[in-house]
Amino acid sequence: WAQQGTVTPEGPRPSHTYKVVLLGSMSVGKSSLAYRYVKNDFRELLPTVGCSFFTQILELDEATVKFEIWDTAGQEKYQSVCHLYYRDAHAALLVYDIANKQTFSRAKLWLEELEKKFLPDEIVIALVGNKTDLAAEREVTTEGEDFARTKGLLFMETSAKSNHQVNDVFMAVGELWHGSSPFIVTEMLLPASPACTTP
Ligand SMILES: Nc1nc2c(ncn2[C@@H]2O[C@H](COP(=O)(O)OP(=O)(O)OP(=O)(O)O)[C@@H](O)[C@H]2O)c(=O)[nH]1
């Protein structure tokens, strides 16, 4: 992680920056998860073009943690540039739609790609089955968790729509790096990045 110090009356206060990249098929809800986490809201968002960028700052007892969230486009035409976005990531959320089995297969392919680019200790990978509110249309059942267990990934099912376990995903990822819990949100930022668009 990047570590900078800020000086407070109590002395230097470390701050850590973690880059989290969201990968997955189009329309699985990557942008909606980022939007829910950062803005605590759910709304129709335009399909991502290239990549969107979000920032979330958390104050822990002993340090400030900043999440840089890179939300990649799921459309096929952007796949060839995705490696530019996940480069140097500390964590990847491989998102699929629990009501669409094909998107689960695509998440597995993403894992293969990351395994070629990162050593196991270099990146935290979480498999995220989104849209749990669509339980009646579920196509992916226990295979998600089984696959994650086999591969040693974090696993969580979420709903950006009903706000089910969205915070928990980011907290689980952060806890793995930081060994600290709970994370408390104190500030929200949405800076534009030259390389990315902001929804
Ligand atoms: N029911 C339900 N719909 C969701 C959920 N999350 C996202 N959606 C819907 O799924 C569609 C796609 O959501 P996005 O967040 O744009 O998906 P994305 O993965 O970022 O899509 P791309 O930008 O094309 O890669 C939208 O119609 C969302 O409203 C969810 O948790 N439940």
Write up this protein.
The protein is α/β, with parallel strands linked by helices and 199 residues long. 27% of the residues lie in helices and 32% in strands. It has helices at residues 30-39, 82-86, 101-117, 143-151, 166-178, and strands at 2-8, 11-24, 51-59, 64-72, 91-97, 124-130, 154-157, 184-189. Strands 1, 2, 3, 4, 5, 6, 7 and 8 form an 8-stranded mixed β-sheet that branches. A hairpin with a 4-residue loop joins strand 3 and strand 4. Bound molecules: guanosine-5'-triphosphate. Residues 24, 26-32, 44-45, 47-48, 73-75, 130-131, 133-134, 159-161 line the site of guanosine-5'-triphosphate (GTP).
What structural class do helix, strand and pairing data support?
alpha/beta
Strand content: 25-35%
What percentage of residues falls in helices of 4 or more residues? 25-40%
- Give the low-confidence spans: 180-199
How many strands in all?
Answer: 8
SSE string, helices as H and strands as E: EEHEEHEHEHEHE
Q: What value does the average pLDDT take?
A: 84
Radius of gyration: 16 Å
Q: Which hetero ligands occur in this complex?
A: guanosine-5'-triphosphate
Q: Between the first and last Cα atoms, what is the distance in angstroms?
A: 26 Å
Count of individual helical segments: 5
Largest sheet: 8 strands, mixed
Shape: globular
